[in-house]
Amino acid sequence: MWLELALILIIFLGIIILGNNRLGTMIQLFALQSFILSMTPLLVHPGIHAVIMTAATIILKVLVMPSLLFWAIRHVSIRREVQPLIGYGKTLILGGFFIGAAFFISSKMDLPVKAISNLLVPSAFSIVMIGFLLLVSRFKAITQVIGYLVMENGIFLFALLLLEKTPLLVEMGVLLDIFVAVLIMGIVVNHINEEFESTNTIHLTALRD
Amino acid sequence: MGIQILLHIGIVMILSPLLLGIIGKTKAFFAGRWGPPLLQPYYDIGKLFQKGNVYSITTTWIFQAAPIVCLAVVLVSSFFIPLGGLKAPIQFWGDIILFAYLYGLARFLMMIAALDTGSSFEGMGASREAAFSCLAEVVLFLDFIILALLSKKFVLSEIIEGNILSSWPLFGPVLLLVGASYFLVLLVENARIPIDDPAIHLELTMIHEVMALDHSGWDLAYIYYGGAIKLFVLGGLFVNILIPYHSLSSVMQTVMFSGGMIMLALTIGIVESCMARLRLNRIPLLLISAFVLALVGGIVVLVKGV
Amino acid sequence: MTDYFLSSLVLLSISAVLIVLTSRFQKISGGIFLFSLGTGCVLGLISAVSVLVHRVPIDYRLDFRMPIGEFYVGVDLLSAFFLLTIVMLSLFAGIYGYGYLKDDEKKNLSVHYALYLVLLISLMLVVTAKNAVLFLVAWETMAISSYFLITFDDEKEAVRKAGYLYLIATHTGTFCLWVMFLLMGQQAGSMNFDQMTLASFPLPLAGVLFILGIIGFGVKAGFIPFHIWLPHAHPAAPSHVSAVLSGVMIKMGIYGLMRLILIVKNFPEWCAMVLLMIGMISGVGGVLYALGQHEIKKLLAYHSIENIGIITLGLGIGLWGQIDHNEAVALIGYAGALLHVFNHAIFKGLLFLSAGSVIRSTHTGEIDHLGGLLKKLPWAGHLFLIGSLSICGLPLFNGFISEWLVFRALFDGVFHFETNALVFSSLAIISLALIGGLATACFAKAFGAIFLGNSRSIDNTHLEENSSLMRAPMLVLGGLCLWVGFFPSTMVSFALGAASTIASLKISPMAEEAIISPLLTVVWVLMILVTIITVLVLFKRIAMKFLPIEKAPTWGCGYSMPTNRMQYTASSFAEPILRIFRNVLGFNVTGNKPQGYFPKEEAISSHVIDASEDFIFRPIFQFIKSLSAKLKIIQFGVTQLYLLYIFIFLLILLIWKMV
């Protein structure tokens, strides 16, 4: 019950992120989503393993990464996505469609591991798809980072399936990877901005020969 | 039956402006003001009832008919929902459709009454109302489908009474999603912030208010009263969905219901204090999000099986 | 009761001939027209109602054998329901048409009257034919006579083009129908519907028949994307003909599908799915296209597509119920579809007739030029309002009753079906809700812009109300809308009877009662609504005695020089909705916004592109055209060569026969 509530809330927040055009709000929503996400290990397999996971996730995803992103948007002083590749309405409808598809696909999927709730796999899938949608539909580098992070949240949910079996070290490694990735992206975004006076990734096409 | 109906009409007519009063008070509190008295909406409506009417020379009888039909429709629509310990006086298989379409009737008349004045501003309001309400209706029906799926009933009061109770433990998250999307519909239908601001006086940005620009005196009183009752009825439905109180004793039910209504008014007040009005072209987006939320709820119901 | 029906047919045929014979004397032929139309329709009405009340079908065979068929007509419950619809609308539209045209001195009206009767006869034969060949003959007659009726104003190019398009479309459909009936006849060993009903059709064959039926009947019914002829043909015809075309003739497609379901009985599940899909697409598409129209009759024509969509939703859910062996869903779905057929005939007829009155008085159908007509044409205005309220499916009027039935069948589908059907029923409910909302917007726009406010560019002062010969039929149709809205049980019970025939079920009085009784509660609630309205009106009346009433111009929000041209137009009213749906519609805005401090004159116009016309059929037609241009090679114009062709063809046939 609580796990399902958490999963639904995560999807809910995903949809809201999808429909939002303010970067600040998006980051806050992402932090909230990550916070709920970080609670899920405790709900699935309470234990020392889960507590460590939760603590690490909260520190990295709820505190460090959002503040990093906030720093980045303050630095490049942009506040909203002005001209998305796919309009907000269309992304939202596509999002609904993708979520439906995710539920449909996972109902057909045969997993070797028995999921604790029949909503877990479909929600993981949905979040991955929402993140993916963010990645493809927006131009601003920051939004793309957020999309990437949301997608990673989905993958985290997948990992919950295997929480018992994977060694802690692997997951810590994954989290660290992402942290480094975001850090690098933050720097890159900054440099894009300095170079092109905009964080619009479409300008990167100017780099081809 | 007759007495029940009169009781419903009485309660709805007496209590509904109070909801607006609470909202006003909440907003004043957040703005750091003392604000108008709790009973201000009653004074406003009473004041209008004492005034004469000014009619535009362009208008026909439709202009005068619309406020009357609107008020009558919202009164009738209140018969379908239980108010605390009071059961809904009218229940039949398929009353959901009548409930939704009665509002359609009122809306149609309000729109043509706005066009009746020949004013470009009122036409603009009618046009916006038409655009947003047809999206809101879709979300409303999707919510109804999900609730009907959970209860296997096609009667509004039965959908929200018995089966909500048994659904909460199993389908709590789904009901939350439905509640969220219904809340957005509620805001749209009642022209509250962030969709529409009932307090501003800038015609270019208004939706619902602008349709009532030329109404005065009794007509305007009917419209305001109708608006208050509409908020009360749709809000009552919301409270019935979200608070599973239906197995309690009837006194407790009434207490819970009243508490729920006050909470609702406070919530609306807080939302209005915290948010700015959305730009017009963002409103469809809000409704689409409401639709997607309900859609996710529906998918979850299907996946979990009923 | 056979006698009534047959004598009606005979009377109509004889008078059609008489009208042509007396065409020199317009007065006489007009008189014959009115008399025979009235008598014939009343006779038809009696036979239809008696069949529906007693629920006993009647049959009639004539010992007259055509090459592969016979003259075999019968009025079963399904036929009777459609017969009722046909005679009801044709009678009133005919009387109106007489009043509409009688001052037109340039044209030979007798031919028009005769063709109208021929159309009526063929319609009656289509729904009663019990033999496939007779059915197709009647179908063709219907198509041809309606072609001539559409091209009444044949001096206009647009009308000729519309007629031509219609002719092509309807023959494409008829081709599919021939193939369908031949396949059915082969399986059953007879072209009589009775024998066909007894035969059993394997599922794959049923699927093929269904596809052929969908195309063949769908062209006539105006399913999207086969609808392209419809928005051109209906505005081209005179208003009373548009009323019959839109109210009755396109329903023959629905009748055909129902007959097909009745005969074949067992369909694979995807057929119901296809029907629901078509219903959703036609319904939502039709109303969205209608919102984008600025011409009143074109708008109404697109609304016919929308209503066909609603009917198809009922039909689809009924079929799904039948496949799923869920009797209640099947019956209610079919009954909803049937009742909507009747209701749509009544209110769409009413709308076309009152639109016709407007066009006759103002000589224009452009909504954006009109305004304020309610004061000048109160009859047409108020009846148009009744029609609008009905077509939006709002309570108090007949459209609500049939939409309620369709909704109920769909909700029952949600409760009883497996996942697949459940998803489709839910989608159908959502689209039906969307259709309702959009239709309300569309008719608020149409009624508001035409009849309310002030006139935008037409001078209203000299307008006069039309003759009573035109007003009376509209009044009756408006009355029928209210009658079904307030006393639905008669028509619902008729529809249920016909529905039980389609589903080949017996319906018990108990089950019928269970379906009708919520509707009676609806009526009861509506009575309360009316009471409350009366009380509120009384309160206000009394209060107004003591309070001052003033008259003043509309408040211009501080703008000191408002003109009538500043009113919101129909196009601007529809713009926000069309903008929301612009991705599915192809909504174009051309023109520039005024710029600078001293702007030049600028104009903005918007229009909606019909995707299936521009992107599907136009390329196909282009392709066929170029193909036929290539075939011109064999066309020399030398008679000897043509004789040679015939000879060669004979030779080939002979050789083929020998092998």
Summarize the structure in words:
The complex is a heterotrimer of chains A (209), B (306) and C (659). Chain A has one domain (2-207). Chain A is globular and about 50 Å long. Chain A has 209 residues and is mostly helical. Chain A is 76% helix and 0% strand. Helices cover 72% and strands 1% of the residues of chain B. Chain B has helices spanning 2-30, 40-49, 61-77, 95-116, 120-151, 156-160, 162-189, 208-211, 217-242, 250-274, 283-304, and one strand at 53-56. The two termini of chain B are 34 Å apart. By secondary structure, chain C is mainly alpha-helical. Chain C has a domain at 611-658. Chain C is 74% helix and 4% strand. Chain C has 25 helices and five strands. Chain C has helices at 2-21, 26-54, 77-101, 109-128, 132-150, 157-188, 193-198, 203-221, 230-236, 239-249, 251-264, 269-291, 296-323, 327-362, 373-376, 378-391, 398-416, 419-451, 468-486, 489-502, 509-546, 570-580, 582-585, 611-631, 639-658, and strands at residues 58-65, 70-75, 549-552, 587-591, 604-608. Chain C is globular. Chain C starts with a helix and ends with a helix. In chain C, 55% of the residues are buried. The model of chain C has no long low-confidence stretch (mean pLDDT 90). Chains B and C meet through strand 1, helix 3, helix 4, helix 5 and helix 9 of B and helix 16, helix 17, helix 18, helix 21 and strand 3 of C. Strand 1 (53-56) of chain B pairs parallel with strand 3 (549-552) of chain C, so a sheet runs across the interface.
